[in-house]
Amino acid sequence: MIPLNPERKPDRNYWIFLALSMIVLLAYPFFLKKAGRHANPLPQEEISQSSAKSYAGRRLQSALTTPEGPFLERAAAPAIIPFENDLYEVKFSTLGASIVYLKYKGQNGKHRLPPTLFYEGETDASGLFGTRLSNEEVELTEAQFKLYHRDAQDQSFTFIYEKPEEYRLVKQYKFPAEKPAIQINISVENLSPREKHFPLEFFYGIDTQGQTPQSEPEALVFEDKVRSEKLGRISKKGFQVSGQIQWAGLLKKYFAVLVKPDWKIIAQQAYFKPPTLWSQLKMEPLSLAPGEKAAKGFLIYAGPQQYETLRKFDVDFEHVLSRGFFGIFKIWFLIALKFLTQFTHNYGWAIILLTLALKGAFTPLTHMSYESMRKMQALQPKLKSLQERYKKDPTKLQHEMMQLYRRNHVNPMGGCLPMLLQIPIFIAFYQVLNETVEIKGAPFIFWIQDLSEPDRLFHFPFMIPLIGQSFNLLPLLMLGSMVWQQKLTPQAGATPEQTKMMAFMPLIFGFLFYQMPSGLVLYWFINNMLTILHQTFIKKMAVVLHHEDRE
C-alpha cells in the first residue's frame, strides 16, 4: 500500500474511513432487501401491450368463451377448480386456463424438504402458464376457457377455447405420479378456410416474497450453458435473450420453476410485477393449413433444486446448480457432501470432513505462502534501507530490490498466489452451503438444529439493532478465530494504519456472518482453526531452525 503522508493526521482519517465503511457494510443488505421488495416493474413499452394488460389483473374486455357456446357474450366470473395430490396444492382458473395457486407440499423421510408457495394470484386475473396468440384479436390470457374434461385417475385437466371459423385451442394439464412436475399439452386447430400462422407465447412466474439479498430470485435460460440474471437487475433493465434456448426458468432460494418445451423457443423475456417475477417465452409460429391441427408440449418442473431429482429428467435441468463462474466446483462439492453424508449421516460432520479434505489438499500451497510471508518479514529492514538509499532513483531501487529477492530466494508474490488459487474453491463451497436444499432443516449437534439457519443458541426478550433477537454463538467463535489467526499471520511491510484496519476486519466479518446459515459459519470457523494449527506449526518449526542455525 502507499505510505501515508506524515503531515496528515492519519488517526482522524482512519476513524472517518472506518465509520463510513461500517455504515456501508451494515446498510447494504437492508438496502438490497428494500430495493428487491419495492423495485419498479419494467416500463410498459418493454413488454407487449396485451401481455402487460393480462398480467396487471384487469377485468375482461374481450369477447370470451362461455360454457354455453364459444365467443358469444361477455364472460361471467371465472370458475376456480381445486386440485391436490401428494406433491402439490393447485387451484385452476377458467380465466386463461391458468393456475392461480401453486404450492409445493414438501417431502418427508430421508431428505426433509420444506413446502413452498410458488404462486398465489387474484382469482379474477390470469395466473401461471397462461398462453396467448400474439396476432389474434382475442386476448387468450383473459379469455374464459371451458373445462372440457377432468380425469381423477390420471390426474389430468383439459380446457378448451374456440373462436368459430378461426381456431380452437386445447390446453391439457397432467401431473405425473411421484414427480414434482406438470406436463402441459397445447393443441391448436385451424378452423378457417385459409392457411394461418399461430405465434404462441407462454407465461409463468414465481413468488418473490420473503427472499433475502443472499437468496435473490433469478431468471435463467439454458443454451449450451446457463445464463442468469438476478431480480434487482431485472427490475431495472429486464432480461431478454434470443437464440438457441433449450429451456428457461425462474429460481428462488432452494426452489425452481423450469420450462422445457418440445418445440423451438425464439426468445425469452423476464420482468418484475411485485410480488411476482414473470417470464414470457415466444415460441416458433405454427403454420397450419385449413383444418390442420398441431400439438406441442411443455414440461414444467416446479420443485426443489435437488441434484438427483433434476438429473432424472434427462434434459440438463441439473445445470441450474452449476450457474455462475465457479459452477463446476459447486457440483463437485455438492456430490462430495452427499457422498460423505452416507457415512456420517449428518451434514454438519460432512461439512467438517470436506473442510478437512480441502485444507489438506491446499496445505502445500498454504505452507509456501506462509514461508514466503515469513521471509518477506525478515527482509523488511534491508528493504527499508534500500528505500532510504535510493529514494530519489525509483529505477535503481526496483533493480536492487529484485536483486535482494533473488539472493534470498524470495518471491514477493509467493504469499499471494497460493491464496488466489484457493479463492475459486472457497467461493464455490460457500455458494453450495448457501444454496443446497438438502441442508434445509438438517441438524448438526446440540442447539444447531438447522444448518440452513443461524444457530440461535437462545433468544433475547427484546430486539437489538443490527443483531436481531437471537444470540448466535458460532459467528462469535468464528470472530474469535479470525482475531487469533491475525495475530499469528506475518504482517510484512504493513503500516500501522494498515495493521489497525486489518484488526478491524474480524468485527466486520462478525456482523456480516451473524445472520448467515450456521453451515456456512461452521465451515469458516473450522477452516480458520485448521489455519491456526498450521501457522502455529510453522512458527514452532521456524524457532527450531533458528536455534539450530545459531548453534
Describe the structure.
The chain has 551 residues and is of the alpha+beta class. It has two domains: 39-323, Beta-galactosidase, Chain A, domain 5; 334-550, no CATH class. It has helices at 10-38, 49-55, 231-237, 307-312, 327-344, 347-361, 363-378, 380-389, 394-407, 417-435, 473-488, 496-513, 518-550; strands at 64-66, 69-73, 80-84, 88-93, 98-104, 116-120, 131-133, 146-151, 156-163, 167-174, 181-190, 196-198, 200-207, 218-222, 226-230, 239-245, 247-252, 255-261, 265-273, 276-283, 286-288, 293-304, 458-464, 468-471. The strands form six sheets. A nine-stranded antiparallel beta sheet has the order 8-9-10-11-22-18-17-14-15. Strands 7-13-20-19-16 form a five-stranded antiparallel beta sheet. A four-stranded antiparallel beta sheet has the order 3-4-5-6, with no helix packed on it. Helix 11 runs antiparallel to helix 12. The longest helix is centred in the last third of the chain and has 33 residues, at 518-550. The two termini are 38 Å apart. Residues 1-15 and 28-74 have low confidence and may be disordered.
Structural features:
alpha+beta; Beta-galactosidase, Chain A, domain 5; 2 domains; nine-stranded antiparallel beta sheet; five-stranded antiparallel beta sheet
Summarize the structure.
With 551 residues, this protein is of the alpha+beta class. It has helices spanning 10-38, 49-55, 231-237, 307-312, 327-344, 347-361, 363-378, 380-389, 394-407, 417-435, 473-488, 496-513, 518-550; strands at residues 64-66, 69-73, 80-84, 88-93, 98-104, 116-120, 131-133, 146-151, 156-163, 167-174, 181-190, 196-198, 200-207, 218-222, 226-230, 239-245, 247-252, 255-261, 265-273, 276-283, 286-288, 293-304, 458-464, 468-471. The strands form six sheets. It has a nine-stranded antiparallel β-sheet.
